[in-house]
Amino acid sequence: RLSRRGGDLLLSSRSGVSACDRGDVLPMLPPAESEMRVQAAVLDGEVQAAAAIKLTDPGAPAHDGDDIFGKTLFPKPIDEPPIAPTAATPMYEKRCFVARLQIVHGKSPGVECDVSQAPFLRVNRVEELGPVPVWNKQASADEEIRAGDFFMKVGASAGDARSMFLALHAPGSIEVIVRRPRQFTAEGLQANPAGLGMTVTSHPRSTCLVVSEVLTSGAVSKWNGEAPGDKRVQAGDHIVSIDGKALSPKEVQRALIEGGCLDIEFTRPDMS
User: Fold this and answer.
1) 3-class DSSP state for residue 257?
2) Is the Cβ–Cβ distance between 72 and 49 less than 8 Å?
3) C-alpha dihedral sign at 258, 259, 260, 265
4) What is the mean pLDDT of each run of 10 residues along the chain (272 residues)?
5) pLDDT value, residue 19
6) Which of 150, 145, 140, 148 minimizes the C-alpha distance to 101?
7) Where does 44-143 show beta strands of DSSP type E?
């Protein structure tokens, strides 16, 4: 029940209040001529706290004097500076999406790709002109094609990097299935005279070596036996750095031959 005493508003927990459930907040309106609105918190049928807000200023905070039962449920807001918007990473990012490209005869598709022997095509660099930059301009941020991404299918071609590379240069409208990369490092691989226990391959136009086979013995096999599933080296993995340094395919081959204790960073499509 709402009543006045002098300039104060009083609230009592009678008619209708006992029907409210635990934690309910009950808005109550004073007579039409009043300029105040009262909000009351009801717990087990008893009014726990109330706050009066001017109707002429709906955004006005509650007053300390409006606390009737000694429990301030609607305290004054703390004056804090607003949080400035930031260009933060989205809460989630697409790991796979479809890009639609319009390829022009005799023109670059707008990406430089690695044509190593692999079941997918890795993007080395996105150029300034071409169908891929055109796609990126109209695509959302989580569907932009970036360096390091993998093309899983180009048009009807899939499962072979070189055939997908050719399809990417065929004129016409094509759909490309793109996956984001997943990188991991195999640490402390100790090479012996026989190598690390994996074979690698490359193409004259490749920018990195690709694992073609993991042998049953050697440092890589030992690593795989101890590493979690998503960090086990497998065929198709691309070597992107050794001991934290990005090297050319020839430099990687030299480092693998010279041996020693190596930390090798690999990348593959993120299939999670």
Assistant:
1) helix
2) yes
3) positive
4) 49 43 41 47 51 47 42 44 45 83 95 91 95 96 96 96 94 97 95 84 85 93 93 95 91 86 95 87
5) 38
6) 145
7) 46-54, 96-103, 111-114, 121-126
Give the pair of three-digit tokens for residue 38: 């009262």
Tell the residue number behind the tokens 């049928």, with chain if given. 45
- Give the DSSP H or E segment for 138: helix 131-138
Which amino acid is present at 108? S
The strand pair at 2-5 and 8-11 is best described as antiparallel
CB 161 within 8 A of CB 118: yes
Residues 6+ apart with CB under 8 A from 109: 101, 103, 130, 131, 132, 168, 169
Query: Residues for the chain: how many in total?
Result: 272
C-alpha dihedral over 115, 118, 119, 120, to 10 degrees? Answer: -40
Q: What share of the chain is helix, strand, coil (3-state, %, to 5)?
A: 15, 35, 45
218: left (phi over 0), alpha (psi -120 to 50) or beta: left
Instruction: Identify the bridge partners of residue 242 per DSSP, sorted by sequence position.
Output: 245, 264
